[in-house]
Amino acid sequence: MIRALLLSALVAGALSCGLPTYLPHLPRVVGGEDVRPNSWPWQVSLQFSYNGQWRHTCGGTLVAQNWVLTAAHCISSSRTYRVVVGRHSLSVDERGSLAVKVSKIVVHKDWNSSQLSKGNDIAMLKLASPVPLSDKIQLGCLPPAGKILPNNYTCYVTGWGRLQITAPTPQGPGKWTEGELLVVDYATCSRSDWWGSSVKTNMICAGGDGIISSCNGDSGGPLNCQKADGQWEVHGVVSFGSSLGCNYYHKPSVFTRVSNYIDWIHSVRTGC
Ligand SMILES: *[C@@H]1O[C@H](CO)[C@@H](O)[C@H](O)[C@H]1NC(C)=O
Ligand SMILES: *[C@@H]1O[C@H](CO)[C@@H](O)[C@H](O)[C@H]1NC(C)=O
Prior knowledge:
Thrombin, subunit H; binds 2-acetamido-2-deoxy-beta-D-glucopyranose; hydrolase; 6-stranded antiparallel β-barrel; 6-stranded antiparallel beta barrel; TRYPSIN_SER; mainly beta; EC 3.4.21.71
């Protein structure tokens, strides 16, 4: 009986997601907010090997102990990658953080880097070994398939970089950031004075009010949106923005809409 109870407690722990041990300090304004260490424990750093050193290139989300969700545009087939989990600062080694090799990369088959506006900017990375969950390493929750957030819903981008327009450039050690973005619904975002036909229903827009929206976050990283019960869901993967600036009026940041790819994510994980 005790064994069975213990087992079910462990299973429940392993399956839970989106509930950080250290609650984030949510910023109300752009910049200057202190980000609480490890308050986004599903955020990972995707790094590639360059001249014998590992360089941060993109963010990602730990969606299972051995799978990371990121953007297709972060992946270059000629590079060797690793994923760092449980990290706050990229410049100092931290207890509780782990670096794991990537053993398999699955880029969505309909991704085409010269047709960004078609979307499908999504990829899954299989880790060489599953990472143990802890207070600093937790899973991100995926939304239910097809879930659409209403206009003006408040979400947060997190990461070490700035939102970038495709082809992320290798960066030096970064400082952790988070920023608030309001969801812009498809009807609004696809208007001709917004993104027009560059935005599809397989994407989610957020930001672009020209005032409060944040530039913070990483390509490939999560758009985190909290449910009424407190649990966080990852609704977007940072895909593209305006070359005019990351909070240009009526040009919100564009994310791959995760709720459109739930079946794909499942099929990649189960190898079907
Ligand atoms: C990607 O898009 C370009 C430009 O439209 C096209 O020429 C090319 O054939 C596409 N590649 C694939 C693999 O579909
Ligand atoms: C919500 O969005 C609409 C349309 O973009 C805007 O007019 C309105 O001011 C927003 N409301 C709030 C509370 O931000």
